[in-house]
Amino acid sequence: MSAPRSPARRRALRLAARSSLALGVVLLAVALVAHVVGVRFNYTTSLPRGLYLTTAFDPAAAHRGELVAACPSEEAAEAVAEYLPRGSCPGGVIELAKRLAAVPGDTVVLDSSGVWVAGRLLPDSAPLFYDRRGRPLYPRLGRFDLGPGEYWLFSNRVRTSVDSRYVGPVSDVRSGLRPLLVED
């Protein structure tokens, strides 16, 4: 049996417990406020990890290279769901945080050599045909003439990025993204 705790020891333990609880409440409140004002944490490798601020997405001002958060179609999301965490997009996956590689009016060709936008091959854009476990992948090979409201998402930071090579063009762009505090 252990010896009874002294009153000073009990007070110190209660103070530590209250302080821990208070710190937890404060951190939760900060996280909730940050989320409400549009701060998001990217933990994937498709973009530099860190904090991003969501901004209004203006389709009229959309340009290649712009960072966005977008949802694939429900059908496309279901096809890649095992590679993405659960989220609020149709099909139950998270928003894809990527750069716009092509915007309405652009022609995109995806073949085994990679993504061609307006006749130029994007570096490191060759699609994968098998995942890390050797299971088949089904890139959306073909020609895409992007119409109004259609965008091509792309990330060449990692070979296994789930982007428009696997989900096709997207039309559900939820927000722009602006880096606040990122690792690169």
Largest sheet strand order? 1-2-10-3-4-9
Distance between the termini: 54 Å
Inertia-based shape: elongated
Q: What is the rounded Rg?
A: 22 Å
What is the strand tally?
10
The description of the largest β-sheet is: 6 strands, antiparallel
- Structure classification: alpha+beta
Low-confidence regions: none
Number of helices: 3
Strand share of the residues? Answer: 25-35%
Mean pLDDT: 91
Give me the strand/helix succession: HEEEHEEEEEEHE
Question: What percentage of residues falls in helices of 4 or more residues?
Answer: 10-25%
Give an account of the 3D structure.
- This protein is of the alpha+beta class.
- It is 22% helix and 28% strand.
- The strands form two sheets. A six-stranded antiparallel beta sheet has the order 1-2-10-3-4-9. It has a four-stranded antiparallel beta sheet with strand order 7-6-5-8, with no helix packed on it.
- It is elongated.
Could you name the key traits of this structure?
184 residues; alpha+beta; six-stranded antiparallel β-sheet; four-stranded antiparallel β-sheet; 3 helices; 10 strands; elongated
Short description:
The chain is of the alpha+beta class and 184 residues long. It is built from three helices and ten strands; from the N terminus they run H-E-E-E-H-E-E-E-E-E-E-H-E.
